[in-house]
Isoaspartyl peptidase
Amino acid sequence: MKRIIGMMICLLVAAGAVSAQKYVMVIHGGAGTILKKNMTPEKEEAYKAAITKALQTGYDLLKTGHSSLDAVEAAVRTLEDNPLFNAGKGSVFTHDGRNEMDAAIMNGKTLQAGAVAGVTVIKNPISAARAVMERSEHVMMVGKGAEQFAREAGLEIVDPHYFWTPERWDALQQALKEDSVKAAQGHAMAEKLGIQNRDNKFGTVGAVALDKDGNLAAATSTGGMTDKKYGRVGDSPIIGAGTYANNKTVAVSCTGWGEFYIRNVVAYDLSAQMEYKGASVKDAGKAVISKVGALGGDGGLIALDKNGNMAMPFNTEGMYRGAITQDGKIEVYIYK
């Protein structure tokens, strides 16, 4: 009997160990109307491979003693360099046919942060955000000023055509046609044609990480919304809205309809619920996404707390996302 009880205790301990898996990095590649029926096996595999590569890139740095900041920057750079994602190389086009990118990074240990917005020639905006954090007294730089700063910091500058991809260009042309229908026939006709369901606001990428010293970091990068106008900036580069990290609580990177994330101060609200209410990262994550949904917004986020617990809530059809554990086990998901 004692032997049986002992075996049961061992099994319970083992089960607890599995459920208490410690994660060291979580990544997202955007949320939105991502349906399996619209995805080819080849493209699905390409997305999974890209997320896996980003996770492995960050993990390799963490494993060799690099900081969480190094890990999230490196992971996001791999996604910026991949045209599958709406950041860097794969950024969507504005109404005027330009690629305008935003990015932010935050150090959970010091609460230092850096961001750039509306940049058009910086190959890796996330590295520019880190440069703003570490090489200036500012938090955010925008447009031409941010680009001048990046040049002086020695970051790689490219011709704007580098960001051009046929898929994003075609998406802009479709959006412009739909704008014409709305202008000519009004919103009622647009609704009949299903135009109000156009999914042109998602695709941000981001990473959160926890290093061996217990330091958290978050990084987010985006090309914004297809057909965006008038210098629009979303939540990604706004500290506390789309990006936040604090060693006391959690690191957060958001993706979705940015205006709603700004109005709800989503990333900071998640941290505050953990700090002031004692909420778990999963409960706080669900709560803030519910707030976004209640106002009519949609999207998702990734969050990693100081103990290595993670959450990936979203209220869309899918979100490209993945995580890696302390022992290197990779998990990648796309659909609900």
